[in-house]
Amino acid sequence: MVTPEEPVPATRREGHFGDRVVTCFAERPASFDAMFRSAVEAHPDRDAVVDGSRRLSFAELDRLVSATAAGYRDLGLEPGCRLGLLIANRWQFLVALLAAVRADLIAVPLSVRAQTLELAYILNDCGARGLVYESGLAGRVPAPDAVPELTLRIGLEGRCDGVDGSSVDSGGATVTFESLLAGAGSSTTAAVGGEEDTAVILYTSGTTGHPKGAMLSHLNIVHSCLHYRHCFRLGPDDRAMLAVPASHVTGLIACIMAPLSAGGAVIVLETFAVPEFLSLAAREAMTMTVMVPAMYKLCLLRANLPDYDLSAWRVGAYGGAPMPPATIAALADTLPRLALANAYGATETTSPTTVMPLGDKAARSDSVGRSLPCAEVRVMDDDGCEVDRGETGEVWIGGPMVVAGYWNNPQATRDSFVGGFWRSGDIGAMSPDGYLRVFDRKKDMINRGGYKVFSAEVENVLAAHATVAEAAVLSFADPVLGEKILAVVHPRDGVEDRDGLRSFCAARLSDYKVPDRFVFLDRPLPRNANGKLMKAALRESLEVDAGS
Asked: Taking a C-beta distance cutoff of 8 angstroms, is the pair 140, 172 a contact?
């Protein structure tokens, strides 16, 4: 049964970012810090963060945030300064982030999987003045002459990726993060910036060229938190699992900021592994999480879910890739009380744009849901004209959650933003009743002799075959048809059933959609830190294998 929807809070049209007119929530806090302070006032003694044996109440988290924000100011970080955060999923990340917001700094979360050259590019591009980094990652921190504007280095003791981080000064730390937590600072820490000011810069993980820094403002973040709170009905009784990287927009907004803004708890999992995730979910009565589909499938493959008490788990949201119908069906059978909800968005939209209403997924497994209250979604053709409902085109997204542009990159901003809408690069269609379907990335759509083939459709069929652990669909050049279809399969238990897969696809797909070639890999398909399939890297590895 579909769960009845909550009434939509009052909205109104407002002008923002110079030339945009967008639908906004009429009643809202001016900043995320204001949201967090309200939660502290309402729920001072409730859990805010659970990280292993460390539990922080809202009052304790607020005290640490204030002390750290004061420390930032005393160290010379003024409002608007960029502060890099090279910290894994641990409670200190939340403190460092919220303190930056409270001190009117611009936080720049960095992937702990990034290497020295990548870090140097981002730190230089945003002109970071400071960096908080785990001591176990000191060897990756760029040398001073590689990042001349980075004058403040704050070392955080501890471990990352199993590296012993006992010597925080090995990366040239100016001060330790622990000294900030101790509350030595004395500066005023009240946030006074405007809601259009940038609060966070998130660098997109593009497959080509340098990453671009999306500028997330307080206006963006507040609306995304309110959207999550509305569509998932988040409240103080919710306990959200941070199982994806905190440095990614999903971890940052959906799993940290949204539940905290609602007075709920954040349960921190440093690295996703099925037994640890399920044990922690059961022990802490997890109610909500947002993960990529591959993580849900791993839970089905590597554990017997009824062995764990997951009775509190009410929302299982996902995004970043389509959820194969076979996985949806298996989860529905195993966890019938769990509401699966596809959440479609991007870094540039501060995460959510459309969300499947709770309980509605089984009937619309091919959809990513309906537009959120303040989101505007248009499907456009190559000439920039909106197409009729049911027809395919590029998905353009507008609203108060859409960032103003990319930091220090006006050309990329002009290329990607038109009239306040962000051009997603996704091919989709809107149904007559307002449900969005996303078929493929524009660049991943295969043109086989004039027929459009969406790789996700073929991948979903392959994923339903018993011998397939995971699969990806690519194109390869053909002198007659232009492009043909290549299926790359990581088989389960090493079973390479080429003929069986071809017959399986032929029974379920139009003949022109059946893969022309199959390649079997004895290793998992490459994914980035957020669990997304990296097709460019996969194609490159196949070329290397072919040439070796």
From this structure: no
